[in-house]
Write a structure and sequence with these properties.
The structure is a homodimer. By secondary structure, chain A is α/β, with parallel strands linked by helices. Chain A contains twelve helices and 24 strands.
């Protein structure tokens, strides 16, 4: 028996009561949809999981593959993504299964042993996530499990949303007129053709995105003529830091990035291979070559590879589209977007900064609440322009960062009197970026200018809300402020009270609450529909400086 | 892709690969079993979940009801039970769903308002669980959800164990001779008779236990002639501490215990009703009477009951059997136990100390590893005598504690110059007991005498292992020492090293490790079968005083 505000029901409280029959997922793909998502990778599933909570929005997610991913290649989950997982309600599962990256170690030739430059020593060790950067750890967890968590949220949602497999997008057409369902998508499905009309289509269909092609956008990029090998292996070794993240720079054999994997035994090695004279020049590189190169870099430590779960060779490249929706930059003022792209469909980069899956999920997390707010009538559709504006800039930052990081990774270890490796300095300087926490959205209709920054000195305007440990007044429960954020698309007012008695009628918090509760300009009163719960659109939290025992709950 | 020592498999790592066909649960009840559990309450499921991990042990759990419990009445989960849930791997689910009891408040007539003795005020407030008592919180969670968690562990186990419903025990016979399957149980099942022979039978079949009756034991007890009403309700109230645990003692209207429930809205009230002149005298008490009494006790605060999820009236009694197995005390030296009883089958008491479910699960947690160790040949069957010896004493302590607590709860508020309510002093003094942490097993073949206590000053001999926060050396992961304990029935050696260099050959830890690794008297070498992993029977952990950065992993 789980107990809710409006009654009691049995069983797992994370399984919502199902919506009405016509709002539930059914095997037959409907002809008309509010939102059609193409692609069920991290970006597509993140978006679908958000939309699945709203039975009034008709959503489907189409995937060309035959079924869910069993083994993926992405594995880095940043602190920011973990914060997002908390909003979805599965962060504790990810934290339990994942490998926690707590420290990163830096190895290079021993300056005190110049006779044997091929022998590496540990030159530095840093905390992977700086104190108070986030309440969440940085973890490593296979992409397939992240998919599983989103799928579970969808299947437990009021709409019981699931993925439609074996739908290959063929044609996508946009009617720029006044049609209620302006986008028409034609799929090949099990030998048949299926046509769907939608209000919005979101292409989360990867680097070869058919949606991107349909809206006439291109991935434009550059190319570094450098190949890397990557392998997930079981091995025995006397290298002491094998359960840490490591960057090894050898004198002449090249560089390695070590990422320990979940489960306690497997490890991923990124091994720098040869400079290339032409694109595709890494073709034909063998697993043995990668292992041999790795063995030389590890010297004087031994590695004995017992089993290879997966391996691949890739060449470094970066690419980006100039805009993430179907509206040309010149038409923004008189045309609304109806097709969006997210994730690898609009940006690709190297894997070693561990950003791919995270930035892709960040894209559709940004788009999700906007689509929901527009489709439920809470926000005007012009809001949707902000998706491309905000996320294209984030992707550009990522590519700039990744360029810099790739160059730093490939540089040979430097001679220097400074004992801290240069790569370690790079790493520390980029820590906030890598954690996903250096995203700052520019001023817009939803983000204020920095003119108001002095009112919230600890919370940079345009950044994600930074959590902090608090004690809940009603039941003295220790929790994180960030725990109040769920994927319910509500707005939040966090009121940080002054040090005085909050019950005093001249205190700021008293005056704010009076305004919010009674004034005709109160956003809470203005935006909450009549009859709805007072916190259903905007929830208000007060944060007090006093200890919870010192506050008089009754007087407040 | 989850990655394990011996390979990789897809999906949820908590779902174990299934054992061979003949070791898997199948709908047909076998004729011969190693362990037959009767009853699928907290004690039975706790035991079944442990045994389900061992495919070499043939276990079934028979239940007379038609299906799993949907709404249970027990709800208190002590810190000790949460530690146990951690060993089962579901503590994070319980912590997420449950209501955390963080503080307990004490209300009584206002001494500064003697004109209005019927008006209560908060007289005290204490932290519910003292600092460092346990790494786990005290929570409130419906018994049915605790059942669900155990069932999930069973269904994900290598044996895929499930409950056999609609099995009503009719006859239980014990052959005290040399039979390999000395216990014969006869069930009525869907109009048929089914006979099962078992090596061991465990009665977890509640206060009216048929297993207890079959071994000729009785619940003997006493009776307090005091009735209480209990109800799970939704209400609106201006009582400020309604989301805290509270004990209210009114001047003349009686006493209330408030337990907030999971989900954020429901609350359980235990309301003291009338003294009784005879057993069963509370028959006919109405819900209205309970609500009226509660309203008077809450004065000057208002309560407005909106919905009643469940209510009941009970009379206080305590009872206990003298022994928890089938061997008469006089026969211990020449007869081995084959039938055990656990939980309500051997002890009953009032609900208000929140101990019932906890002590029941503690019973079968104690029995589980012993049955497994005996059936897998690791321990001699004489070990099984220790179950009744250890747990009967625990139940006796519980009943003594509960007597005292019931008396304290029913006492009217006292006049005293001391402003701390007497009941608060009682509560604080009993905190360690209520948390399930004052269980001390006496010296036996498995518990040393206190002669060795000076070697482990922070860990009282005979108590549960007290956890502490540590950093794991291999990957710098912050964790709890208690996280190392799983339901795998391994033994553990925790070696707390001195402050010196652990790699020095004259350090205690160096010498211990050398002994354990090489000496012919090493328990690790003696008890680990040839070819098995070195930590498969006894795992060894070193705990160091230095920070993890100060320790040289390579030298160790």
């Amino acid at each position: 028996m789980e107990i809710h505000l409006n009654g009691f029901h049995d069983g797992n409280p994370e399984i919502y009561p199902p919506a009405g029959e016509d709002k539930l997922y059914s095997p037959e793909m409907p002809d008309e949809l509010d939102v059609l998502i193409v692609g069920s990778g991290p970006a597509g599933l993140n978006l679908a999981a958000q939309l699945s909570q709203f039975p009034e929005i008709k959503t489907r997610i189409a995937e060309r593959k035959d079924g869910p991913m069993l083994r993926g290649q992405a594995d880095g989950v940043s602190c920011r993504s973990m914060e997002m997982f908390n909003a979805f309600g599965f962060v504790e599962k990810a934290a339990k299964e994942g490998h926690w990256v707590n420290e990163t170690c830096f190895w290079q030739p021993d300056p005190e042993n110049p006779e044997n430059p091929e022998q590496i020593v540990r030159a530095g060790r840093v905390q992977d996530v700086e104190d108070d950067l986030s309440e969440m750890p940085h973890i490593i967890l296979n992409q397939a499990r992240v998919h599983d968590f989103y799928l579970e949220v969808m299947r437990n949602s009021p709409t019981r949303l699931d993925v439609d497999y074996q739908y290959q997008l063929q044609i996508l057409e946009i009617d720029t007129g006044e049609s209620a369902y302006p986008v028409t998508a034609t799929f090949a499905h099990q030998g048949q053709t299926k046509t769907v009309r939608a209000k919005y289509v979101v292409g989360c269909d990867g680097a070869r995105s058919a949606v991107r092609t349909a809206i006439g956008r291109e991935l434009k990029g550059d190319y570094a003529y450098q190949s890397w090998g990557v392998m997930d292996i079981l091995m025995t070794t006397d290298f002491p830091d094998i359960r840490h993240k490591n960057i090894i720079k050898s004198a002449a054999a090249g560089n390695i990035l070590i990422i320990p994997r979940e489960g306690g035994h497997l490890v991923r090695l990124y091994v720098e291979l040869d400079k290339l004279s032409e694109r595709g020049g890494s073709k034909g590189v063998s697993l043995e070559h990668i292992i041999d190169t790795a063995s030389r870099i590890f010297s004087p430590y031994q590695i004995d590879v017992k089993e290879v779960a997966w391996w691949s060779v890739y060449e470094i490249g970066h690419s980006l589209t100039d805009k993430f929706d179907d509206v040309p930059a010149t038409d923004i003022n008189h045309r609304l977007p109806h097709v969006f792209i997210a994730g690898d469909a609009c940006h690709t980069h190297s894997a070693k900064a561990g950003q791919g899956m995270n930035v892709s999920m960040g894209d559709s997390f940004n788009l999700g609440w906007k689509l929901i707010s527009v489709l439920t009538g809470r926000c005007p559709p012009e809001l949707l322009h902000s998706y491309s504006a905000e996320r294209q800039a984030v992707a550009q930052d990522l590519i700039d960062f990744d360029h810099e990081w790739s160059r730093a990774m490939s540089k040979p270890p430097e001679d220097s009197d400074d004992t801290t490796p240069l790569i370690q300095k790079h790493f520390v300087a980029g820590g906030e970026f890598t954690a996903g926490l250096r995203v700052t959205y520019p001023p817009s209709s939803i983000t204020s200018s920095s003119d108001w920054q002095h009112l919230a000195t600890g919370q940079p305007v345009g950044n994600r809300f930074h959590s902090a440990p608090v004690i809940r007044l009603s039941d003295a429960r220790p929790m994180q402020l960030g725990d109040t954020i769920k994927i319910d698309t509500r707005w939040h007012i966090y009121a940080f009270a002054g040090s005085g008695d909050p019950a005093a009628t001249d205190s700021g918090i008293y005056k704010l609450c009076t305004f919010l509760a009674n004034d005709k300009n109160s956003p809470v009163l203005k935006h909450t529909p009549e009859g709805a719960d007072i916190d259903s659109v905007i929830s208000v939290y007060g944060i007090f400086q006093q200890s919870h025992q010192a506050l008089d709950f009754e007087a407040m």
